[in-house]
Amino acid sequence: MPAEEDLSRLHCRLDELLESRGMTLTALAEAVGVSLVNLSVLKNDRARAIRFSTLIALCDALECQPGDLFTVGAHGTQG
Amino acid sequence: MTAQTARVLSRTDRAVLRLVQIAAWVGAALTAVTTALNATLPLLQGMGAAPLLVQPELPEPLAGPTEGIAVVSTQSLDTVVFLTGQPTHLTLAMVAALVARSAGVALVLVGIAMLAGRLLRGRAFLQAAQLPLALVLIGAAAGPIVADALEGWVSMGTWQAMGTPAGYGAVAAFNPAAIFFGLVVATLMTVFRVADRAERDADGLV
């Protein structure tokens, strides 16, 4: 099981994807059916886990793959 | 650590929890005071107490029909009798039984007050909730069981010290409800532990 601090290496690229698609977080929340608070948690890299159903809904709404949504930074860095 | 439970509490929930918390603390304090008085007052008057079976003198039935419903004249009443000259160790054991029973009630109330406070402050299922639950478990199960055992011993010892007179008898009580309640609380403790893990897993889940 990864250490808790390792989670900070994961970066969610929701901001970049939203910007490139000219979409707001509110619109995405409506499209995906996830609360704005939860999407904000994800966007600010404060999420500790994501449901597959949320991931699929996000990928559908943003027309991307899971790999486009997340990046993992090197050891000792923040994502 | 986020206070998830605190966020979902409505104003009514908070009011009810606050009321429970205050009532439980007051109840525990009153129990302690009442116990202190009940334990010391008979001692100050030089009396001991013991639970005994007593054959009461029943009043004569009213004159009336000779057939039909009637009270059986020979029966025993399970009651606490106050007596003088009780051996000291039995008097002390009776006081200990009273304290154990009241301490059980007080512990349950303190546990409830602490649980209500924990719920008001934040997450209910934290490991720290195990302490108030343990207090409820000890108070609900151990208190009555210890008290019953001591009272049974006092009853038998007092009856023998009295010379086993006719019309009196020793009494021993056992309260299975205490065991059942203890099992329920022990199960609740496990549920709380599992819920704590589930809550931690769900914290930050999107």
Total discrete domains of chain B: 1
Largest sheet of chain A: 2 strands, antiparallel
Number of helices of chain A: 5
Low-confidence stretches of chain B: none
The global form of chain A is globular
Mean pLDDT of chain B: 85
For this structure, what is the CATH homologous superfamily of chain A? lambda repressor-like DNA-binding domains
Classify the secondary structure makeup of chain A into a structural class: mainly alpha
Helix-residue proportion of chain A? 40-55%
**Straight-line N-to-C gap of chain B:** 17 Å
Strand arrangement in the largest pleated sheet of chain B: 2-1-3
Q: How many beta-strand elements of chain A?
A: 2
Low-confidence stretches of chain A: none
Quick take:
Chain A is mainly α. Chain A is 49% helix and 8% strand.
What does this structure look like?
The complex is a heterodimer of chains A (79) and B (206). Chain A is mostly helical and 79 residues long. Chain A is globular, with a radius of gyration of 12 Å. The chains are: A mainly alpha (79), B mainly alpha (206). The interface between A and B is small, with 12 and 5 residues.
List keywords for this structure.
heterodimer, A: 79 residues, mainly alpha, 434 Repressor (Amino-terminal Domain), 5 helices, 8% strand, B: 206 residues, 3-stranded antiparallel β-sheet, elongated, membrane (chain A), Helix-turn-helix transcriptional regulator (chain A)
How is this fold's topology laid out?
The complex is a heterodimer of chains A (79) and B (206).
Chain A: E1 10-12, H1 14-21, H2 25-32, H3 36-43, H4 52-62, H5 66-69, E2 70-72
Antiparallel strand pairs in A: 1-2
Chain B: H1 4-8, H2 11-44, E1 47-54, E2 77-84, H3 88-121, H4 130-161, E3 168-170, H5 176-202
Antiparallel strand pairs in B: 1-2, 1-3
Helix pairs in contact in B: 2-3, 3-4, 4-5
